[in-house]
Structure prediction request, 320 residues.
Amino acid sequence: MDFKQIVRDVLLTEANELERAAQNISFDIEKAIDLIINCKGKLIISGVGKSGLVGTKIAATLASTGTSSFFLHPTEAMHGDLGMIGKDDIVLGISYSGESEELVQILPHLKRLNIPLIGMARSENSTLAKYSDVFINIYVEKEACPLDTAPTSSTTLTMAMGDALAVCLMKRRDFKKEDFASFHPGGSLGKKLFIKVDDLLRKENLPVVSRETRLKDAILIMSQGRLGSVIITDEDNKVFGLLSDGDLRRALMNEKFSLECKVEEIATLNPKTLKNKELLASDALQVIENYKIQLLIVTDENDKLVGVLHIHDLIEAGIK
Prediction:
């Protein structure tokens, strides 16, 4: 049995259903977005079985991207948890058939409470669709299951629709990377999106010399500084240059090399600097990688030295 071909067929079947859906967007997405944006309460997702599992994921995605949202199982709603839905809330109901008994049972109560309803199902003639203020069609022509019965393509499309809804809301709200960071302060993702340059900046006991410093003295300070470089400043404390171990190795190859020369004679003048210490550390790492440097010098608006950010500091902080 060729399992690789089976995997290929499943992926292509689901991809084809996504492509077909992308070419046939007939529902009023703008009305759905307006309902959610203007909602003063929460967006509550509800569904049963596989639809419920997908709904849980959609609720999590929405909550992490700026839309206050949570999942409510319709059975629990019928046994007391309906009170979790407030008059200012909105409901997104998911049922591929549109006839899931548990979900259908709460629909009249939502209407009684004047709760706006967005429905996801395969048919506009379904009960869920008829109760919905906005209906999102998630019909698929073929499930990836060989029996064409197990929810496969349909759950993939439903999840993708949830993602599309979340992205539309992010665009509408102008949701930025910094906003996303505030919802993910922990873990590697949080570190990447939340930690700023100023949080990792070395500001004390920096290896700094003047332009007139002799090379042999600069090398001593370089060794003490443990950064592999020496920062050169002028009389106004403005950054003038940077002497790296690479600069030193290249100078050693010169026949006229002398430890008595001034450090500025072999240093890199006008090195790459950064003026925005509020920049995300992950973006600073991108600068370091783009310029193929190890040390990023941070200055104020007047080019005066504020601190330095070493690539090792970023790695140790888990910034990738």
The first helix runs from residue 3 to 22. The chain has two domains: 3-175, 197-316. The two ends are 41 Å apart (CA to CA). The chain is about 45% helix and 15% strand.
